[in-house]
Design a protein that fits this description.
The complex is a heterodimer.
Chain A (H helix, E strand, L loop, with lengths): L13 E7 L4 H14 L1 H4 L3 E6 L5 H13 L3 E7 L5 H6 L3 E2 L41 E4 L22 E3 L8 E4 L4 E3 L8 E4 L3 E7 L2 E4 L9 E6 L3 E4 L2 E4 H4 L8 E6 L2 E6 L2
Parallel strand pairs in A: 1-2, 2-3, 3-4, 6-8, 7-9, 8-10, 9-11, 10-12, 11-13
Antiparallel strand pairs in A: 1-5, 12-15, 13-14, 15-16
Chain B lengths: L2 E6 L7 H14 L4 E5 L7 H4 L10 H5 L5 H4 L1 E2 L6 E4 L12 H12 L4 E5 L6 H8 L3 E6 L3 H17 L1 H5 L4 E9 L1 H5 L6 H8 L3 E6 L2 H9 L10 H13 L16 H5 L4
Parallel strand pairs in B: 1-5, 1-6, 2-4, 2-5, 6-7, 7-8
Antiparallel strand pairs in B: 3-4
The chains are: A alpha/beta, B alpha/beta.
The complex binds adenosine-5'-triphosphate and magnesium ion.
Amino acid sequence: MTETCFRMKGTTLTSIVLEVIDFEPDNFEAQLSQKIASAPQFFTRSSLILHLIKPLSATEFELLVALCRRLQLQPMAVKGEVAELKPTINDLGLADVSQSKFTDSVLRSQNPSQQATASNVNSSENNGGSQAQQSSTSAANTSSDSDASPSAVTPLKAEIKPAKVINRPVRSGQQVYAEGGDLVVTASVSEGAELLADGNIHVYGTLRGRALAGVKGNTGARVFCQSLDAELISIAGQFIMHETVKGECWKKPAQVYLEEETLRIEPLA
Amino acid sequence: MAKIIVVTSGKGGVGKTTSSAAISTGLALAGHKTVVIDFDVGLRNLDLIMGCERRVVYDFVNVINKEASLKQALIKDKRTENLFILPASQTRDKDALTVDGVQAVLDELKKDFEFIICDSPAGIEQGAQMALYFADEAIVVTNPEVSSVRDSDRILGILQSKSMRAEKGEPVKEHLLLTRYNPTRVESAEMLSVADVEEILAIPLLGVIPESEAVLKASNQGQPVILDEDANAGQAYADAVKRLLGETVPHRFLEAEKKGFFKRLLGGK
Ligand SMILES: Nc1ncnc2c1ncn2[C@@H]1O[C@H](COP(=O)(O)OP(=O)(O)OP(=O)(O)O)[C@@H](O)[C@H]1O
Ligand SMILES: [Mg+2]
């Protein structure tokens, strides 16, 4: 007998659920690319669960998967209306998880005419229907060992991820992403640099680049900086550009937060 | 231990080759055995600035391809003791430089030389990345204008992520060399000031080289401008070399020249 060469374990994984409400390839691709462009670092090569709200034909489904891959997403599993598609799902090397239990909570969209369902069960700041983000994706926790109801928006476990701390300037062309938590930069952030965080972003220097906080939809996330000179600031998908950032807090210590779907800039005393 | 110093900028035409020639000459004059390598394969002009273009027989690419020995390709400077030039090829392209090939040449040079100065081509692509990959220190040449500062910022990002030192988690020592500085144009706000550039790039200032006709004159004569002791640009390079060697020297030529009493009397320009 040789020594044990593998071990099997269970795990939970946070992934994006792409709810496919209506699949008209061109339109779908246009909307999806736009969404990805809003937070490229977050979406690129992220694993994806396709949730088919309506049944698709095998050809349509193949198109959908190819389209996702072309946009650098990695579909790994399918749920929803999959009955007719089993052989195709198999051929494409995907998993059929239509029988699994999910805890993703789909919050009501503000504007039902739009394909918009955004959700994030990891966010303790979520407050029911007042979700501001409009998107065709929903970030969800696919934990299969729990049967939490959609209203269980309080964190399942008190997991606190330490902040990601960067002690040097973030230069033009660089991107930093703090997954699952806050991002702290103790130096300046150049024009052309991009900061992303699931939580808050703190810059103890001049923020000249882009800062995207709450990229998975945490509307309570904030951006703080010592000197505000940003190209773009985004919170949970809502963003303001340079022109708007300019104002009374220009080049001063400031914080930016979301209030009723509007980004507010406030001086830090 | 030999030190490898890359002279780089991102943006083209800012004075990398002028600076490489001046600084390597200055180091050799101070008694340090120095070699300066032209990494601008296909567009060689270091040999012109150094005034040794007629003596080029073999080049960097010949050595990498083992068509010539290093000894055959190295050109001993006629004016300055301790100084050698390794010219670039005019007939090849940048793909002729391979990581292994460059490393082998640098390893051999390290046995013999105290300073190895690498004159980088413009850009942030493969050619520039090859020139900086093995660097222990970097002299980032910047002109006092927005596009040049932005490119320097990008190159600093690349030094932090794509150099061999960065891969090993040891930072590359960074120096800012501000060239073609024209205090009159700074005063009239046509150009960025030293303080502006220092604030954006946030790296130590090695020197400020004034815009000077002596530079063009020197390059036409094939004589590094540092040898022109009467020119302010020559003196500024001499100061920069001293700082590179660890001396503390105050910065000069930062202010527009005030017309002296006699000049005013005589109505001088
Ligand atoms: N301090 C200076 N004052 C005036 N002219 C200068 C100065 N420094 C450089 N120049 C001029 O600028 C031009 C470009 O200089 P140089 O060739 O050293 O730049 P480079 O960065 O090596 O360019 P490339 O990116 O093409 O390799 C030359 O004509 C040179 O004479
Ligand atoms: Mg050059």
